[in-house]
Amino acid sequence: MTLIVLTAETDLAGGTTAERFDGAAHGGGVAVSFFLNHTPPGRGAGPHRHPYAEVFAIRDGEATLVVDGATIAAHGGQVVVVPAGATHAFTNSGERTLEMTSIHPAAEMITEWIEEA
Questions:
Q1: Within 10 A of 42 (CB to CB), how many other CB atoms are there?
Q2: What pTM did the predictor assign?
Q3: pLDDT tens digits, 75-85
Q4: d(Cα 74, Cα 105) in Å, to the nearest integer?
Q5: Distance (Å, whole) CA 40 – CA 26
Q6: Residues 79, 104: contact at Cβ < 8 Å?
Q7: Which domains does the chain have, with CATH numbers?
Q8: Taking the CB of the first residue and of the last residue of the chain, which one, N or C, has fewer CB atoms within 10 A?
Q9: Which residue has the higher pLDDT, 28 or 47?
């Protein structure tokens, strides 16, 4: 494998609130993917699940996660591990931008979005 150096702003797929690293697209395939989240207050991701665990490393700000119906309040400096198959969602519940890395231990992200009732 060749050494790879990427710049989030220019080399990763980006949107308004996150940059996305897909492991399968880099260096012949890396067995991890992630989002660098910069989520404004009140925003987040709706209910979904993955066939693997997802790790949320919260660098700054506050988040409310709902995991299989249980509500978890988390803040900068904490790591939350959501089990494989668990339906989960998150919202920035603070007053400033939530800086968080969402780690998917897979070369390709697999997400099943769950419709809210």
A1: 10
A2: 0.91
A3: 999 999 999 99
A4: 21
A5: 29
A6: no
A7: 16-110 (2.60.120.10)
A8: C
A9: 47
Contact 49, 114 (CB under 8 A): yes
First to last CA, the chain: 46
Q: What is the Cα–Cα distance from 10 to 93, expressed in whole angstroms?
A: 29
What confidence tens digit (pLDDT) does each residue in 26-40 have? 867 899 999 999 999
Residue 45 forms beta bridges with which residues? 90
Query: HEC string of the chain?
Result: CCCCCCCHHHHCEECCCEEEECHHHCCCCCCCEEEEEEECCCCEEEEEECCCCEEEEEEECEEEEEECCEEEEEECCCEEEECCCCCEEEEECCCCCEEEEEEECCCCCCCEECCCC
For 11, residues 6+ apart whose C-beta sits below 8 A from its C-beta are: none
Is 61 in contact with 76 (CB distance < 8 Å)?
A: yes
Angle at 6 between CA 16 and CA 15, to 5 degrees: 10
